[in-house]
Amino acid sequence: MAGGLVALLDDVAALTKAAAASIDDIGAAAGKAGVKAAGVVVDDTAVTPRYVHGFTPDRELPVIRKIAIGSIRNKLLIILPVAMLLSQFFPQALPYLLIAGGLFLCFEGAEKVYEALTGGHHEADTPAVQSGPEVEKSMVSGAIRTDLILSAEIMVISLSSVEDEPFLTRLAVLVVVAILITALVYGAVALIVKMDDVGLALAGRESSFSRRVGRGLVAAMPKVMTVLTVVGIAAMLWVGGHILLVNVGEAGFHWPADRLHDLEHWFGDLVQGGFGGVLAWTAGTVASAVVGLVVGAIIVLIAHLIPKRKKREAAH
């Protein structure tokens, strides 16, 4: 009896260790996948605050909550089933999906550079506070549609990090990534959006220190948004270019990925020690961003400049 109990306890302990190891593996894989999708996450965080522009302060957090709920539905109910079915029954499609996603990121990044240089933009800012619940509903719907594209990028990039894992591990990793990324992005968005209100509240206090901090926060937020936008653009070009280089190789054309690998090795060998690795990573990142910018610029040229020229010619 005692021997059977000891054996049972041993089995329970073994199962507990196996479960803990499995959880550790899922956590590590989710962390790796999240890092790989970092460029899209930064862009998602930079893009979303514009959808609450013009709302009264009491509506900002409810609107962000609605967008976050829509985002998690996008990830878990639409993107996750499609991604898992493709990875299980048609895994050879994954590189082509990533190439399409990389092209989209390059286009988005290059388009933002083009808009910054020309002063143009595509979104008309409608003051939501003047238009009521219908505009709020429209803005939330637009944000969720945009999130669907960005969430698809995040999930597919994450899936590519664990494509060799068993089905249940892939599923668990994508669920963890979906929940954590959504919490990270929309938690950061909420902090960014409400920082002005925090600054104004501090600026109205009697303490001179609080007033200085409050005024500093209010003055800093436009600069923070500018930096976040620039980082988001750079991240899109880097991640998009790197996805293209790697997955064009996965699809059978290895020359671009091989040249990137050679470049990283060459820079890494210039300096001995840990700094060589930093130099190699920097060289690969810059090269990927340049590729992303060039490819994105070509797509922008096709998508915007050529149609405009045809319209001008037709008008004359």
UniProtKB/TrEMBL annotation:
Kindly state which keywords UniProt assigns to this record, in alphabetical order. Answer: Membrane, Transmembrane, Transmembrane helix
Transmembrane: present as a keyword of the record?
A: yes
Report which residue ranges the record marks as coiled coil: none
What InterPro entries does this protein map onto? Answer: YedI
The organism's superkingdom is given as Bacteria
- TM stretches of this protein: 76-99, 171-193, 214-239, 278-306
Tagged with keyword DNA-binding: no
Q: PANTHER family in the record, alphabetically? A: INNER MEMBRANE PROTEIN YEDI (PTHR30503:SF3)
For this entry, the protein name equals DUF808 domain-containing protein
